[in-house]
Design a protein that fits this description.
Alkylphosphonate utilization operon protein PhnA; YjdM_N; YjdM; N-terminal domain of TfIIb; YjdM_C; about 30% strand; mainly beta
Length: about 110
């Protein structure tokens, strides 16, 4: 039995050490164990339109029709987006929208599903 922690991204138990980092072979996530132990929640808190805190991997629903810049397509109200990833910046949600593809959204136009 390994005493290494599970992967923070996919919760896989098959992590291994590679020099100073821990690596998850399932999802490919690499992290420094000292960083996660010292301050796991030191990043910015991202909240949806209703004030619920969003985390990586959540499912969200779009609450307003959003025009896609440079295209004539529209992301319709009620579109569900699975497995989001939080990023720094003005558009703080990175995701793949079914039928449209990869794009970034502002958290003020979504709600947690």
């Amino acid at each position: 039995m390994s005493d290494l922690p599970n992967c923070p991204e996919c919760d896989s138990e098959f992590t291994y050490e590679d020099r100073d980092l821990l690596v998850c072979p399932t999802c490919g996530h690499e992290w420094n164990p000292q960083d996660t132990a010292a301050g796991a929640a030191t990043g910015p808190v991202v909240r949806d339109a209703n004030g619920n805190e969003l985390t990586n991997g959540d499912t969200i629903t779009v609450i307003k029709d959003l025009k896609v810049k440079g295209s004539s397509t529209v992301v319709k109200v009620g579109t569900k987006v699975k497995n989001i990833r939080l990023v720094e910046g003005d558009h703080d949600i990175d995701c793949k929208i079914p039928g449209i593809g990869a794009m970034q959204l502002k958290s003020e136009f979504v709600k947690k599903a």
